[in-house]
Amino acid sequence: MDHMEELPRVLQQLWGIEGRSRPGPKPAFHISDIARAAIKLADAGGLAAVSMSKVAAELGFTTMSLYRYVDAKDDLYVVMLEHAFAEPPVLDPELDWRGRITAWAEAFRDGLRRHPWILQIPIQEPPLSPNQLAWMESGLDAFDGTPLTPQDRLSAMLLVNIYVRGTAQLTANMLTEPDEVREADRLYTERLTMLATPDRFPGIAATLEQPLDEGYAGDFDAAEFGFGLTTVLDGIATRITRARTR
C-alpha cells in the first residue's frame, strides 16, 4: 500500500494528495467550503453550534454529502483549525530570537482571540495539517542562531505555545467592553477587599494595597500577557546562556 494511502482522508485533501476516490457523483464543493461554513457557525455560537447537519445546512447540502469529505466530527475540527489559523506570521530576520518568538506568540494569541472556540477543541494528537505544521516550523525558526538543540527548540516552542493557550483560556470568557471591564474590576476588588482579610489571606491583601503599575493601567490583559511571556522567555534565555558556556 502506498504510504500516502495510510493518511486519513481529511489530511489527503488538505495536502492536495489524491487518494482513492469514493463511488458516487463528483464532489460539489471543496473542503475549504466546509471549513468556512463550520467556522462561521463556531464564531457565532461557539463549538457547540457546530454539527455535521448544521454545516451541511449552511452549505445547502445534505448531511450525508459531507461524508464524502470528512469521516467524523474530529475530521471537521482538523479542517476548522487548519483554516482558522491560516499561515503563520512572517518573522523579521533582523529581530533576535526573543523578538521573533514574541511576534509568533502574539500572532498565536490573536488567532485564539479571533476564534476562542479553538480552545474548546480537545487536543488528541500532534498536528499534521499544512498550516499547523507551518506554525510549528515558524516557532522553531524563531530560535535560529541560538545554541539550542533541535529538541530544546521544540521544547521551548511548546512552552511558549502552552503559555499562550493557558492565558487565552483564562481570559476567553471575560468581558471585552472597556466600561464593563472597569466596572467588573471595581466590583471584584471591592468584594475581594471585604473577604480577603490580611489575617487570613495576607498575600492577597498585600496585592490589594499595591497600586497597579502604569503599564497595567492602560491594558491589564496586554500587560499581564507581556509579563508572563517575558518571564517564560527569561527562563529560555537562561538555557541558551548555559548552552553557550558549555
TrEMBL record:
DNA-binding stretch(es), residue numbering of this chain: 51-70
SUPFAM superfamilies, alphabetized: Homeodomain-like (SSF46689), Tetracyclin repressor-like, C-terminal domain (SSF48498)
Cross-referenced InterPro entries: Homeodomain-like_sf, HTH-type_TetR-like_transc_reg, HTH_TetR, Repressor_TetR_C, Tet_transcr_reg_TetR-rel_C_sf
Superkingdom, taxonomy of origin: Bacteria
Matches recorded under Pfam families: TetR_C_1 (PF02909), TetR_N (PF00440)
UniProt keyword annotations, A-Z: DNA-binding, Transcription, Transcription regulation
HTH tetR-type domain segment(s): 28-88
PANTHER family, alphabetized: HTH-TYPE TRANSCRIPTIONAL REGULATOR RUTR, TRANSCRIPTIONAL REGULATORY PROTEIN
UniProt-recorded name of the protein: TetR/AcrR family transcriptional regulator
Organism: Kribbella speibonae
